[in-house]
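Reopening closed ticket. The problem is back. First fold of the pair:
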Amino acid sequence: MEEQGDTRLAAGFTAGDEECMAAVYRRWRPLVHALAGRSLGDEREAEDVTQQVFLAAWRGRGGYRPGPGGLGAWLTGITRHKVADALEARTRRARVVEAAARVCARARPEPEPGPERAVERVLLLGELARLPSAQQRVMRLAFYADLTQSQIAEHTGLPLGTVKSHMRRALHVLRRSLEPAVPQPIR
């Protein structure tokens, strides 16, 4: 008797009868939810998978072909696929979290600058102040405002090539003036 009821439900379901869909949901939801819950071990994920199974079944109802086990077996197959998808998504999320943790571990903030860093900073600021005003402005925007060369050009109204030239010349001057004096060999 139950088999005939299931056959009628399946026929109405595949025909797009929404009342049959509701009956199919009531009939097989506990089975689908139990399978998902056992496989995933998480109630919220199991509920999500259950919803996904019935949504996929409704959308793919035209592909249902009665066979051994009927509509219940078909829904169980969809459940297995959706559980596998959920487990894969969980694995991907775990990999992303691990990768982010590795990146964060590598990007630890620098320790507080010591006295030698303060001296270097004072020297750098002094040399920066000696640059011509256009080069000084470009360098300050690059290092203190953290702007790219294109953004500096847009901000100042200077052509990009001019910004690049100012930066190159300023860096060259700073490099020369801040390099430690290299002792010359005695001849």
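Second fold of the pair, where the issue appears:
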Amino acid sequence: MRAVDFQLTEDQRDLRGGVRALLEGRYGRAALRASVDRGEGVDRGVDRGLWRELGEAGFFALRLPEEEGGTGLGLAEAVLVFEEAGRVLLPGPLVATHLAAGVVPGAARGTAVVTAFDLGGPFVAHLGGADAVLGMDGVPEGVPVRSVDPLTPLYRAAGPGAVPEALRDEGALLTAALQLGSALRTTELAVRYAKEREQFGQPVGAFQAVKHLCAGMLVRGEVARTAVYAAAVTGAPGEIAGAKLLADEAAVRNARDCLQVHGGMGFTWEADVHLHLKRAWVRAEQWRTAAQAEEVLAAELLAGSA
């Protein structure tokens, strides 16, 4: 069996560094908090200026051929880009708009916002500010429903809809990359706070219980990273399902443990930890839920044993 090298190339590292610099400059913590403070649960629409900047930077057209205005890169590079978006909790229907590039006019350039029926049942995120719905003609009417994430407005749509099956795996993998970015970021936040916060004359990170929490977060994040990167290379449905399961678990549990490391401070509105946890809960229900991913894995196992 031929060994596969999953190490990033120099071009991939440069891509990740460039995207991180772009997002930190355009959507750093100040911008995140400003988005939240404009109103919890209020759909003020996608930031069209930011969406266009993302389009100009090639965020949505990353995998389109160069002759179609894209950069001709692959799924592995898209995963790196979405991982960085997950780190900063970049809001909006990023996955659906990316998948719509080359299909919906304006999606690749960031002049159109595209959402999708990527949640169970009739629920759609960001429907109020969308120009199109992936796999549908037109945008259905929707009734706002309360969302746990203040930056992911949800709607109960009036008409039936479904994501095209051909795009479901790609959507699940890109969502896993967003979850991975969040899981790695909450690990960083926990470690930094554990070094800075002191009790009984020493940093709380010196206490064994806190060390164990941070170590567990690191392990979950790295296991998820390996699974997501491998699935981006193979593109196999089973690999993608496993990556989504691991990334969802890492994002949710790391946010919870990060909150634990922060103690009482972690429960306050001013801390960013709760934003990562709420977004992780929503993403865990998008594109492929745990139950759906388990069904994919079970079907592959049964097929392999037949």
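Update: turned out to be a display glitch only; the data is intact. The chain has a mean pLDDT of 90. The chain has ten helices and seven strands. Please close again.
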